[in-house]
Amino acid sequence: MKKLSFGLFAAAAFAAAAVPNIQEPADICNVRLKGYVADRMEDCIRNHVLKTDATYLSRIFGYQEDVGNWQTEFWGKYMHSAVPFWRYTGDAALKRRIDKSTADIVSYQLPDGYIGNYAAGKRSAAGWDVWGNKYTLLGLLHYHDATGDKASLSAACKLVDYLMSQFGPGKRELHKTGCWRGLPSGSVLEPVVWLYRATGDGKYLDFATWIIEDMDRPDSSSRIIRDALAGVDVGDRVTGSQNFWLQSSRKAYEMMSCYQGLLEYYSVTGRKDCLDAAVAAARSIAATEVNIAGGSSAHENWYHGAKNQTKVFEYEQETCVVTTWLRLCEKLLSVTGDSFWADELERCFYNAYLASLRRDGGAFVQYNPLMGTRHLGEDHCRLHTNCCNANGPRGFLAFLRSFLAATSDGAALNFYASGTASVDLPGDGGRVTIEGYTEYPKSNAVYLRNRTGSVRTFTLKLRIPRWSEKTVVKVNGEDMKNVVPGAYLSISREWKPGDHIDLYFDMTPRVHELDGAVAFTAGPIALARDVRFADGPIDEVVNQRMKFKTLDLKPIRTTNPDLWITYGGFINLGTHHKNYNERLPNLVHFCDYASAGNTWGPDSAYRVWLPREQIVREK
Questions:
Q1: Any bridge partners for residue 436, and if so which?
Q2: Range ranked top by mean pLDDT from 55-69, 88-102, 376-390
Q3: How many domains would you assign to the chain?
Q4: Average pLDDT in the 262-290 region?
Q5: Which of 242, 326, 523, 577 has the most other CB atoms within 10 Å of its CB?
Q6: Is 334 within the bounds of a domain?
Q7: Stated pTM of the model
Q8: Between these two residues, 134 and 5, which has the higher pLDDT value?
Q9: What is the mean pLDDT of the chain?
Q10: How far is CA 391 from CA 266, 314, 323, 325, in A?
Q11: Does the residue 260 lie in any domain?
Q12: Residue 377 domain-assigned (yes or no)
């Protein structure tokens, strides 16, 4: 096979093996939701996305004087949500701000193709410069994809051409720029593959191939593929005793961004080891890092968080990590069609993600522990924003894009909410439209109607969550068989307009015990105590004689409009069980984790894991 200048196999050979998505997401403009999720998203659009000053974020590119900050990430992050939400809302003022800021970015491009704000001599060498280039490319390509603008595509090409002049065989090694064994810089892989898709120019795919080799082959790299395929958990990735910031490759957000790039590369080349590595790493994250609220990370790193979640660590559950986990699950669901990733996305979205959003939708927390209080994070890089506040709005897009998807023989409904969603079937299959009414996950009942305009034969796949042990599905009143938790129920038939599907999920509250603590879930929702219930100290100990097999938590009403889902039940609290009064159970209230702590102050202090009294036994 002919070799190219990068010393790797010809891009055309890989491109011929491009792999279609198992699930092709619907256009978000064809998904219109109602109810709680829609209200939270609209608050975020109105009070966050529409109020962000895009010029404030773009003008910093006019000053080439930085030496180590990440100021240039913020414009690209803004564009990653602003462009889709402009298409979703049609807001003309938002479009004008996007147009103006994009034109400004293009005007700041230097003759050699560089777009950034690092000083000469520091560019592409230290700090977060290549990371900023990654986000600039994502912003330019989002704009081009939505508008067809040639200037933004040309600017993206010139920027990647500049990077190719700096990195490659006989030039600098990408993984030796910045910190974390090159994870931030290596994540530029994702937009490089996007650029190849947009242009068809094989040199960009060649560069993407070299980036993968640079991230994986040298021992000094993050070993992004080989460690994953060897079964090394993400919390055990290489580190050194001399300089944690340089030698560790456990940085959660940046690592997932690199796996996002590998999945994009797999989609255009069919290179199986890239897919297998991304799946293996994500499975490791789900098994060893994700907590009961669907989030993860401490000090922004992997730390075997699943087994350590009852303890208190610094900087827990960074919102950048949460949002990127949603994006990674979204991409894995699209590429593999495995409902496992929809389950993970749902758990994270309804808990860790919605919990990070302020009540008015105008800001996102930076860190979000499982106990305590929430608050706005610090400003970054001498700007009045931070990485998490900029990243936050992208999480809603992962949910919207995955809501309904086209499959080879029909459509897959991954999530349940009130509203209407449409998707175009492959070939000339036409458009399928599904309407739903539900208060899920506050309620276990979901009512769907086929709103497709004519009689059509196709397969509708309904995700059955793995937590729902006994799910009832009826089509026009007829019970469906073979309803399996953690899988899709495929219904193949001639669908008529108005056909209805009723689903009833098993939301029996569950008890989770870990490391001397206890927590509760109902369906996909993690439950938390909150001081606003005024039912006793939230850190009161659960009595060691409490038998949870008899626990009977039930949904209850609340007069507090800030609490979405509320449960109540009797639990034995207190440590001195020989005291007669403490043998009697207490009425304890819980709310959904997203509602807990949502005043962002001590008046709504909360706790998910409750300490349990320990039994002393003689050896």
A1: 419, 448
A2: 88-102
A3: 4
A4: 98
A5: 326
A6: no
A7: 0.95
A8: 134
A9: 92
A10: 25, 20, 7, 12
A11: yes
A12: no
